[in-house]
């Protein structure tokens, strides 16, 4: 047996012993609602400064809670990012993405819903899990796992015999769970909307409900930044011919398509916002609002026509940066946090809120230190980002970021390294890697990237991954 698995198994009784539901529990542990959207980037939110989109419920949560202005996913693709959200681990460690089989049980056993359930929380999950795992619904006390399916898969569910859009259906299940919740047991409800994910390759791309179709009719959305030919032409050939470009042709290659797709994207986010408003109203009615923490984030960023691209996957901030907030009714002071927060911070944050210790293997850190006086906020000088799926149409890449600099490289294609001064060039338009003036910075970041890759590779408890 592999030595890392032996070490893991040897530690497991101690880890899970400390997490036993027999330990003394605080009387008033909070309920936790974790809301995840699919492909919502950081600025598709009114509170982020977007003047077009209508998201009053999410904006209110941000205004009343802790909002993370620089939140990122460590890997800009839904499957791997969702595995990282569940487990608090980098993709380089858990090894899960598309076409890698099931997430190994050894990692799922360390996921936040499994540990909360072991420690007295009632757990539920509704919507898109996005991670393959046999009998995944059995991980929760109550669950219905689904995603859009078929050409108009957003209309695959019924309530009382009537066909409904997936977004209100997910909200309906969440409200049913809250309505039945007992005041004698805390709960963790994970709500994972399929919206605002496009439905490829349907000509319409975006599917929304009838009422949402009334929104955004009378506005013209400004064209994307960096939409000029020169930004597209500067990309490696494999990116120019890959899925980012194919999807751009489906959504944005004419002004008419661009307006249709942008309004569809915003409409689907507004529908999610409407469900969040209903959930908050129900929490008030049930007398649960004062003891229910709400966390909201997106699973990865998204290109909305910048560089004449669509989708995610690349190391630019368009596909790495996401909305993230924590509304904790026990915290009466609003804060905007400018320090970086990551998807791998979700599991340790949720466990911290529940007074459940995080496993030592976790690589994320609890974000409560940004607002709880008895906690310590994470300190990060350099962050690793990676996209490890070996798919020719989506070139694999990896890199690191500091407050001022970003360095990244493609893994399996002949393409130059890229280096950006984020302080003076936040849109990442001038690649400084070829400039010898920045040679020392380039070398330093390259070495740091190599160091972190090895660090997270060495942390595996399952040997070898298909995409390494």
Would you write up a description of this structure?
With about 475 residues, the protein is an alpha/beta fold. Helices cover about 30% and strands about 15% of the residues. The protein contains 14 helices and 19 strands. The chain has helices spanning about 5-20, 55-65, 80-85, 90-95, 105-110, 110-120, 165-180, 230-235, 235-240, 245-250, 255-285, 315-320, 345-355, 440-460; strands at about 30-35, 65-70, 70, 120-125, 140-145, 155-160, 160-165, 185-190, 290-300, 305, 310, 320, 325, 335, 340, 385, 395-400, 405-410, 420. The strands form five sheets. It has an eight-stranded mixed sheet, sandwiched between helices. A four-stranded antiparallel sheet has the order 16-17-18-19, with helices on one face. Strands 12-3-15 form a three-stranded mixed sheet. Strand 18 (about 405-410) and strand 19 form a beta hairpin. It is globular and about 65 Å long.
Top keywords for this entry?
468 residues, 19 strands, eight-stranded mixed beta sheet, 14 helices, four-stranded antiparallel beta sheet, alpha/beta
């Amino acid at each position: 047996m592999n030595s890392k698995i032996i070490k893991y198994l040897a530690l497991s009784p101690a880890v899970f012993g400390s997490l036993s539901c027999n330990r003394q529990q605080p009387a008033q542990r909070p309920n936790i609602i974790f809301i995840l959207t699919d492909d919502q980037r950081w600025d598709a939110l009114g509170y982020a400064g977007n003047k077009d989109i209508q998201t009053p419920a999410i904006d209110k949560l941000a205004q009343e809670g802790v909002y993370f202005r620089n939140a990122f996913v460590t890997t800009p693709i839904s499957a791997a990012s969702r595995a990282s959200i569940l487990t608090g681990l980098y993709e380089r460690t858990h090894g899960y993405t598309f076409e890698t089989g099931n997430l190994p049980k050894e990692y799922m056993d360390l996921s936040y819903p499994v540990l909360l359930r072991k420690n007295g929380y009632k757990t539920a999950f509704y919507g898109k899990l996005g991670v393959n795992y046999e009998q995944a619904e059995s991980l929760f006390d109550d669950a219905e796992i689904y995603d859009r399916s078929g050409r108009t898969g957003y209309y695959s569910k019924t309530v009382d015999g009537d066909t409904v859009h997936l977004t209100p259906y997910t909200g309906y299940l969440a409200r049913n769970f809250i309505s039945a919740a007992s005041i004698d047991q805390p709960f963790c409800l994970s709500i994972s909307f399929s919206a605002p994910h496009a439905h490829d390759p349907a000509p319409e791309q975006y599917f929304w409900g009838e009422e949402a179709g009334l929104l955004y009719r009378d506005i013209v959305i400004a064209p994307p930044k960096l939409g000029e030919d020169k930004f597209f032409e500067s990309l490696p050939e494999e990116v120019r011919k890959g899925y980012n470009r194919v999807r751009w042709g489906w959504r944005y290659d004419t002004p008419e398509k661009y307006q249709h797709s942008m309004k569809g994207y915003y409409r689907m986010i507004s529908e999610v916002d409407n469900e969040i408003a209903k959930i908050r109203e129900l929490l008030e009615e049930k007398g649960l609002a004062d003891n229910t923490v709400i966390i909201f984030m997106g699973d990865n960023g998204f290109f909305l026509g910048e560089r004449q691209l669509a989708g995610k996957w690349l190391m630019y901030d368009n596909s790495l940066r996401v909305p993230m907030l924590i509304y904790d009714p026990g915290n009466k002071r609003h804060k905007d946090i400018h320090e970086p927060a990551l998807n791998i911070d979700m599991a340790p944050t949720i466990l911290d809120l529940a007074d459940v210790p995080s496993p030592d293997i976790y690589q994320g850190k609890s974000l409560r230190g940004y607002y709880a006086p008895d906690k310590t906020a994470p300190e990060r000088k350099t962050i690793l980002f990676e996209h490890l799926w070996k798919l020719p149409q989506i070139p694999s890449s990896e890199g690191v970021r500091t407050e001022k600099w970003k360095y990244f490289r493609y893994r399996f294609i002949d393409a130059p390294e890229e280096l950006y001064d984020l302080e003076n060039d936040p849109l990442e338009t001038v690649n400084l890697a070829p400039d010898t003036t920045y040679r020392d910075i380039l070398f330093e970041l390259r070495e740091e990237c190599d160091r972190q890759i090895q660090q997270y590779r060495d942390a595996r408890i399952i040997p070898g991954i298909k995409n390494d």
